[in-house]
Every structure is written in C-alpha cells, then in structure tokens.
Amino acid sequence: MALPIPERGLFINGKWVQPVRGKYLDVVSPATEAVIGRIPAGTQEDVEAAVAAAVAAHKRGIWARKTGKERSVVLRALAQKVRDNKTRLANYETQDMGKPIDEAEWDMDDVAGCFDYYAGLAEQLDARQYTPIDVGMDEFRVKVRREPLGVVALITPWNYPLLMATWKVAPALAAGNSCVLKPSEMASITCLELADLALQAGVPPGVLNVVTGLGADAGAPLSSHPAVAKVAFTGSTVTGKRVAQAAIANLRPATMELGGKSCLIIFDDADLDKAVEWVMFGAFWTNGQICSSTSRILIHERVADTFYSKLRSRAQSINIGDPLQPGCRMGPVVSASQYDRVRTYVQVGQDDGATLLTGGRRPPNCPKGYYMEPTVFVNVKPHMRIWKEEIFGPVLSVGTFSSESEAVQLANDSEFGLAGAVISADLERCKRVAEALECGIVWVNCSQPCFCQAPWGGNKSSGFGRELGEWGLENFLSVKQVTEYVSPNIWDWYSPQSKL
To answer: Is 257 a catalytic residue?
Structure first.
C-alpha cells in the first residue's frame, strides 16, 4: 500500500524552510503517472543560505571539533533511525522512482550498514591523529594530522536516492565536515527524510543541509560556490563534466562517479544456468538503471545459441508489475523522459540491424506507468549505438567472441571504464581477464555485488576518485603536517660573522 508522501520544505540550519522563490516541483509516480506529492524547487538564494549555514557550523566547530568517537555515536544513532523507519523509507522510495519494494528495503539495510561502517572509521580516526613520520633527523618530530575539509557539496542521483546520498553523507560526516546535499529532482523524498532523521539522531544544525530543486537552479550554483571545499558528484558523464569544470574553476577537488557501459564476458566453460542468473541481476536490477550495469554481454561463440535460449526464457519469466507488491522483480523506469529514451534505443537497435531476442515493448499487464519489458538484443556489433552508449534502462546487448584476447579487446573498446565482469571455471583465466580489463571494479563469476567496505569508482569517462571503504573517508579529509623542533640547541644557520 502506498503511504502518504510527507511534504517538506528545504532543510537549512536544522529547520524546515520554504524556498525563497516559493516554487515547488511535482512528484510523479512512475508506476501510475499520478502526482503523489511535491518537493521544494530550490534556487541560488536557497543554496546561498544552506552554504552559509554550513560555513557557520564548521567555523563554530560544533561537529568538526568533536572527536571521531563522539561523531560515531551520532552516526550509529542515525543508522538505527534508518532501521526503525525502514518500511516507511522503502515505501517512499519505491513510489518516488519505481524500484521494486524488495530492492528498496534491501537498499535501506545498506543505508544503515553504511552509516554504521563509517561510524567505525570515525572512531578509528582518533587513533590515527598525529601519526609520527621518521624524517631521519633527530632535531625534528614530524606528525600527521587529519582534518575535515570544511563545507562539502554532495550532488546525488535518482536511481539509489538514499543509498547514493549516504555513500557521500556518511564519510563526509565521519570526517567532521559540514554538508550541503542536493539530491536529484527526480527522486528527493527520502533525502529530505534523512535530514529529519539526522536531526533526531543528534547531527547539529547546519552540519547537514538539504536543498532540492532542478540541476540548473540548485546544483549548478552549489557546485560553483567559492565557499565549498570539495564537490562529490554521482550522475551522468555529460553533467559530471560541467560539475567538474565548476569545481576546478575555484581550484576545488571533485570526485566524479559517472556513467558506464560495463561488459560481462562469459567463456565456454561456464555453467550457463548460473551465468544467466548473474546476467539478469547485472542488467535488470533497479529496472536496469544502474551506472555499473553489465549491459554488454560477450558470450563465447561455441555456446551462444544455448545461452540465448536460456536467457530468453529467464528474461520472459521476470515478474513485472506494481513495484509496491512484494515479489515484484521489475517496476517502471523513473520518468516519462527516461521511458522515451529507452524506447528510442530499442528502435535504434533494430534499425542498426541487431536481433531483438525478447522484450522491447510495454508489458501487457501494465497499461499505465513507464514500464518496459526486459529487453535483450543479440548479434550486436561493436559499431552499434546500443553497444556503445549508456541507455540506463532494462536493455541488454549481446555479442560473441572466439578467443580471450578478442574478448578483452572488445570489452575495453569503450569510452567508459566503471566496471567489468568475467565468468569462467578457469580461475587463472579469470585473474588474467580481471587484470586486463580497463575499469575500476571487476566481478569474477558474479555481477553487481557492492559492499560499503570496498572501493567504488571508475576510469576514463566513468569519472575519477573512489567512494566507499577507507578511500571514501580519505576523500573528505585534509592531511596536515605538524613539525616540531625538539633539539635543545639553537638553530645556528645564521651564526654571527667573525670580525676581521
């Protein structure tokens, strides 16, 4: 059952405030195409207020000067708040962007786990302060201190609204920063709820601010704000380029987690039934709307026909329907514009000569909503657009190969480099392929698992920098050298000149 969507203002300095210009954006359910709520349409004036609140909070030291242990207590309290509200948050998220409720509930578990994980790293940070460095001179004692950067801008996507926000908010808060979070206007509801839970958990006013609105109106002024010490962005490559340019104009660092067109290579010694399950999970999870989706499949030509038969059968068996119903395994894509984009690519694939194995149409049982059947193209060639371009929907492109070297070459022949995967019974071959793939994440005999303890990020047009794990925390820390002169002797470089 759909729960009523709460109406929130912008969250600035610990309070709910109305947008300065008084405008709002409708929240449209992708499953029903009905308006189910609204969010504030923040603009530059609201961004200015949020950044000012974050700057003031940072300067007061109400969060930055706390110990890691003190911050960890609040982060663990926030994790528990998420667990206590899991059912409600998942329901909002499914209504907002269409992912099946079972997936959304899994995401909420991951959100809570991520806050707990970074609470642990915050605690460990205390022991890492003033780490000594041997510089080879007894006269000097050199230590390293780790400090928060200051005010950080966090710009997040709509496919995992709360989880992707948490990937940034949790390490940023663990490090002691003050944050301004700008979620995607296409799915902001749970990020606004996060602000409320954070306040309840004890995050001080001004330390976490949430400004919703259009990218041009709110995201652009945030990414270019001179008081921001760092920008962390997840989204499309096109938008990421603009955000990175805005940050570098102020000589600010940025982390970019961008698009992908990841390839999964299946060798002829693979268990095809197991391989098909990972192909499905890698391409159709979150309704195919994942930056790391293994939406390109390379299958060895000797087993291609058998693989096609198994894949068609399993793709056609996916339970498509109301995403709020437990057991649903595919809901609608996020919006009308995304639906049109996916439909366009289905037509492009056919026009370019690929063979439509299954799907490519609206499911008969879903007359309303932005639904698309799981779609599989075979006989896809490297020059085709559906092989090269990120679609961000439930569309899978399959080609063949005859040798390991050919498979690696075809996989790497992409502007993207986020993830890749290999399935084979030969673990030495898997190791070779994993080392040869030009990407930041490689899955062996699986596709798409993600853990907050492990680094996440890509190469080439998939961005730069790493989130999650200890690397995610280091992104939000500044390293300060503290050098002390400890010798009792005077530093006699400018000794008195002798009088001649």
So the answer is: yes
